[in-house]
Amino acid sequence: MNLDQIGILFEITIDRSIKSVPFAVLGGESSFTSEKEILFSMHSVFHVDDIERPDGTNRLWQVKLKQTADSDPQLSLLTKRSREETKEGSIAWDRMGKLIIKMSKFSKTEEIYRTLEENVSNENMKAYIYKQLGYAKIGLNQYEEALALYDKAIAIRLETLPSNNVELANCYNNIGTIHNCMADYSKGLSYFDKVLEIQKRTPIDDMSIGRCYDNIAYTYDRMGDYAKALIFNEKSLMIK
Known about the structure:
TPR repeat, repeat, 57% helix, two-stranded antiparallel sheet, Serine Threonine Protein Phosphatase 5, Tetratricopeptide repeat, extended, TPR_rpt
């Protein structure tokens, strides 16, 4: 018995009145005649109703699931939120790329945006693709390549957007994060300062400024300047 492994048993309650989740009892159609298999359609969504430990230990967990109807309010809210978060850009491949980023599948993300890069001529869209590719490279810990991609994105943005545009701030923020990952904290700090400068000149929500304060505080902390780190932590807390 491998003590590093645990068992998970899924128990699904089927409500025959829910027509939006088709299923079929395979019975004699299955290759495994001794098993009573049920096949659900691929788009089926289930609620996690409860999680238990039937044997009283941490070796086995039982997850109880219930079908979810299309009219379920939580499912509707989740669907609406997902659409809002992926609404930028009308290209289906782009929407897929955003969803895959959320799944942290960065190699697949790179494949998608490389394909888009080959088929896009609009400069603003190219800048956006470079930004997404840069984000994927951060996830793959390929920081030098990420920096090169963000440099391309910024070069285009500076030609097409005002210097205080939020898109530039987003790129600067990610570049600052990359430099922090590379332990080049002074350079990271310089980019977070650029972000803060843009945010102070642009109508933007306070939470975004608070996140920038958090990044600056973290950077000062890593540099060993705890007094300044405390100042920016306090600024962030005042906003939150």
